[in-house]
Amino acid sequence: MRKTWTTLMMGAVAVLVVALPLVAHHTFGAEFDLEAPVQLEGTVVRLEWVNPHVWIHLEVSRVVQGTTETISADPSEEVWRVEGGSPRGLVVRGLARECLPFGARLIINGFQAKDRTLKRANGRDVTLPDGGRFFLGSSGPDAPRDGAEARANRTGGC
Description:
By secondary structure, this protein is α+β, with helices and mostly antiparallel strands. It has a single domain (28-152), classed as CATH 2.40.50.140. The protein is 25% helix and 37% strand. It is built from 4 helices and 7 strands; from the N terminus they run ααββββαβββα. The chain has helices at 2-24, 28-31, 87-92, 147-152; strands at 32-49, 54-65, 68-71, 79-83, 105-113, 120-127, 133-135. It has a 5-stranded mixed β-barrel with strand order 1-2-4-6-5. Strand 2 and strand 3 (68-71) form a beta hairpin. The protein is globular, with a radius of gyration of 19 Å.
């Protein structure tokens, strides 16, 4: 009886250990809107290269939402947070932290947060100052599903 009880308890602990990270992770559709593509052009002011997602903070001078383009008179007032993939996933595809230095001018395509009051987006791809373009590891429905496709779609380097 004691062996059965111990086995059940260990099984319950194992299920909790596996399930908790899954509960904490959000899906693309829970936070971002596939019907709200956005293009952001600006300079890197902060970079969070941490798990589970990289976050790029941009002082945005130009925003294109659908067919509407907005030019900001004071980019320091227009700071957007852009979610990318995991640091490891980005490095495997060839995008190192050093590719996104502070002050670098970037163009990021992605999808806006459902809550429009937030200046937040899920990044699809980033164009670097040298013209290199990288898949940012978006979890959106149109994301490449294997690493080979993502690596094949990148151009340039840093």
